[in-house]
Specification:
The complex is a heterodimer. By secondary structure, chain A is mainly α. Chain A has helices at 7-15, 19-41, 44-61, 72-97, 115-127, 131-142, 147-154, 158-175. Chain A folds into 2 domains: 1-100, Orthogonal Bundle (Rna Polymerase Sigma Factor, Chain: A); 108-181, Orthogonal Bundle (Arc Repressor Mutant, subunit A), CATH 1.10.10.10. Chain A contains 8 helices and no strands. Chain B has a domain at 3-54. Helix content of chain B is 62%, strand content 0%. Chain B is elongated. Classes of the chains: A mainly alpha, B mainly alpha. Chains A and B meet through helix 2, helix 3, helix 5, helix 6 and helix 8 of A and helix 1, helix 3 and helix 4 of B.
């Protein structure tokens, strides 16, 4: 793996079947895809499915990719988010057909604030946000995209992105208020 | 930048000004210098949400996932058309190629027979001279 390779350079090597480049691309993008899909879907197994599907799109796209026309990471985020939204839509259809019992994510008398428990509660609070607010937070906070790039991935204006972020984070503050201190 | 804008940015982008939009940071720094205690309080409040978000770890890849994904990647010498043919059944592709070869070969043979009598052909096997005795030993 050549550490200095840009995404475009790596993709060009992937396109000609360079196995080292293929492994390097997986090493570079798999954690990012799992982070994105895991936090959008709140389910590790589904996140892996999305990551695998996204990589199939990468392998297919590699020989057609035109460097400079778009940023590869932006394209990849859009692909992965579309795959996540497909799954969220399917979930809603299933939930509509057969509504599940709602899990109690709130604090209970025996709930300690251990790190894993804190993580679970934050995850549950994040999953309870409207999809677009969660998407904005995942892209900006976890994926560390700049506001212009995140807005481009979401297909909204920078102002709309800021509004989604603000509303999402305010809702999280309220949901997690009892965790303070 | 006024106080309201500063608070809106903290609410949206969190308590770390380094993660705010690049074109807003300089003005934010000016306001932070002028109203340090207030700015610290606003950023501290926003930072609580950041801290909570960091507690939600991403899923780790299961054993073998990266290998499975890489194994499905493009291979050397497989262009777009080979990539299309491969999963559809290489055997079918090869069978079609063989059939085409036999068809062309048969037609060429027929054409050669009908044209002129065959002449003896000398073929170079290698750049070495071989001596054969009657027993066929080299």
């Amino acid at each position: 793996m050549r550490l200095g390779d840009s995404d475009d350079q790596l993709l060009a090597r992937v396109a000609v079947g360079d196995p080292a480049a293929t492994r390097a691309m997986v090493a570079r993008k798999l954690p990012r895809l799992l982070s994105l899909a895991g936090r959008m879907l709140g389910d590790a197994a589904e996140a892996e499915d999305v990551a695998q599907e996204a990589f199939l799109r990468i392998w297919k796209q590699a020989s057609r990719w035109r460097p400079g026309e778009a940023r590869f990471d932006t394209w990849l985020h859009r692909v992965a988010l579309n795959l996540c939204y497909d799954r969220l839509r399917r979930r809603r259809e299933l939930a509509f057909a057969d509504p599940p019992d709602r899990a109690d994510d709130g604090p209970g008398p025996d709930r300690g604030l251990l790190a894993a428990d804190t993580g679970r509660r934050v995850g549950a609070a994040l999953q309870s946000l409207p999809d677009r607010q969660r998407e904005a937070i995942v892209l900006c906070h976890y994926q560390e995209l700049g506001n212009i790039e995140a807005a481009a991935v979401m297909g909204v204006s920078v102002e709309a992105l800021e509004s989604l972020l603000g509303r999402g984070r305010r809702a999280l503050r309220v949901a997690l208020a009892d965790m303070k201190g | 930048m006024n106080a309201e804008r500063f608070e809106a940015l903290a609410e949206a982008f969190g308590g770390d000004v380094a993660r705010w939009p690049a074109d807003e940071r300089e003005a934010a720094a000016v306001l932070m210098a002028a109203r340090a205690d207030w700015a610290r309080s606003v950023l501290g409040l926003a930072g609580e949400v950041d801290t909570a978000l960091y507690a939600y770890a991403p899923p780790q890849a299961s054993v073998g996932l990266a290998d499975r994904i890489a194994a499905a990647g493009p291979r050397p010498g497989r262009g777009r058309w080979m990539g299309f043919l491969w999963p559809a059944g290489l055997g079918a592709g090869l069978a079609a190629a063989c059939a085409a070869g036999i068809f062309v070969g048969a037609h060429l043979s027929a054409a050669a027979v009908s044209a002129e009598p065959l002449e003896p052909v000398t073929m170079a096997v290698s750049d070495q001279d071989f001596d054969f005795d009657l027993d066929g030993e080299v």
